[in-house]
Structure formats: structure tokens, C-alpha cells
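Re: that chain you flagged

S.,

Sorry for the slow reply, it's been a week of failed gels. I finally had a moment to sit down with the sequence you sent. For the record, here it is as I used it:
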Amino acid sequence: MFKIGKIPPEILESIVMNPIRQNGVRREDIVLRPKTGEDCSVIDLQGEMCVLSTDPITGAAKDIGYLAVQINCNDIFSAGAEPVGILLTVLLPENSDESVLEEIMGGALKGAEELGIEILGGHTEVTNAVLKPIVSAAVIGKSRQRKIIQTGSAKMGQDVIMTKWAGLEGTAIIAKEYEEVLLQCLPAAVVRSAQGMKDFLSVGRESLVAVGHGATAMHDATEGGVLGAVWEVAECSGLGVELWEEKIPIKEETRLICDAAKIDPLRLISSGTMIITTENGAELVEKLARLDIEAAIIGKTTEEERVLVSANERKVLEEPKSDALYQVDFQ
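Prediction finished late last night. Pasting the C-alpha cells below so you have them in one place:
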């Protein structure tokens, strides 16, 4: 029986990825195909590279239109590409009223305007197949000068950098979804500040800087959080990694909310946090700081072993499992 969240990588490989690879159709214009941890596919349109990605919003009930736009576009940014437009599928439960759809579309339009993309269409329906509103999106982008950066292109011995803070998206979601509960145990200013972390969801600016610096791999830290994202970069690249827990930036709001919710902030969905591998990591951190983008070197890629180093303890860095967002417990 599956748990809530991503399908385990070994099952994904056997039931989804391997049959796709064994499919007899192999078009010459497909230049980047599905791979565990790789968020985008790429088509060569003989003039420009078309970059495609898709993701649903299932872990939140509020701000889902805005989240759908920002998070899907982050996959395109992580490929070093530029998002152009997005298609939205909106599924509403029975007895939803117009205000629900208005809120979803208002958030989606706000996100699209911030990123300079168009909503290209999609599908909207009411169905008894869902118990809460669900938005699934497919985003279309184009490469910059036909250059694509893959999740699996990290090189051995490179710095591992993360931007912003662990648990970024999850903190904003929990602060909005559980506002009344949190206000009973945390100061209102902390809850409001945590909700405001939604404004930092885009990785568009750091993508441009990292590409210009010569980043080899970039990955938006979604389900599974920072630890899951780093594991996926290593897995995609066929490398090991040494990660330093004390170097991973976590905002105080996130620590307080995660303590209250009894969850691990390093395993909490972290869209808006980009994992980057590169040479001369300190130089990239300085470049990002000049644009007021916080970043830190949190580890090194290695030959084989994947470990999390904490207080002189070396623990195996495990593959991403069910996100901490689904383990929130305020009892």
C-alpha cells in the first residue's frame, strides 16, 4: 500500500520509468526524456528547445492557483530555461461555489503576471472524484540560446549550494492552512511572517545568476524537502554527496512551526529553494548576495557515498519519502 506523497523511487522505476524506456517509439526530436529526479522533458523544435514540465498541487487547499503557477515555472527555471505559458486543470468537489473558482483563478493570474507568462487554457470541472479543489498544471518554456541544465549533470567534487531556506513552501502552506491552531501557540507576528514566505517561491532570479556562473545542475526542492532534492541531484548524476546539516539555512519561523507540528524542516516541501552544483561556490554565493538572494554552500559532491554530517555523526542520506507536510500533528 502506498503512503501519501511521491511514489517510492524503486517502484517508480519498475512500473513507470522502465516501461517508458522500453516503449518502441523513440523520436529524434526528443532530447531529454523522463528520469527519476529530472523534472523537465525537452523537445528540439529545430530552432529552439521547448521545455515541458507538469505538477499538481495536492498538499494545500488555499492559494493553490498561485502555488500551481509558481511551482511549475520553477521546474522550467531549474532547467535554465524561460517559462512562456501554462495550462491549468482545475477539479472542484461537488457543491463548490463560484468563490472557490474565483480564488483559484485570481491566484493563478497573480502568479502569471509576476512571472510574465500567459495562461494558455486547460480544463475546469466539478467532480465527485475529489474531496477538495485540485489544480494540476503543465508549463511550457523555451531554452536560452539552446542551452539546457539537467538535474543529473552535477560533477564530482563540486560545491552544493542552496538558495533561501529549508521548508520555504511548506512553512507558508502550514501557516495559512493551520492559522487558527498556530495562533494559539505562536505569536501572531511569527505566523504572519511565515505566511509571507509565499512571496519568495520563485527561483527565476537565482536561475539566471547560476546559469551565468556556470552551474552544472539545478533542482527546485519540492516534495522531500532539501534532503530529498539533494538526494535526487546525486541520484540523477550517479554521484555521492556529503551534506553538512549545520550549514543548511532555516528561518526561525520555520523552526517554530515545525516544532509545533512535530515535523522535520529538512524533509518539508521547499519550493523556492534551489539546489545548485558548481565550481567556485563561494563566488556564486557572493553574486546572489548582491541581488539580496540568500544562499549557502551546504555540501560537496563525492564519488559514491551519500551522507548527512551532523555534530560529528555521519548518517546515510536516504531517498525522499512521504513529505513532512503530510505528517503535520498538532495534537
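What I noticed first: The mean pLDDT is 95.

Talk soon,
D.
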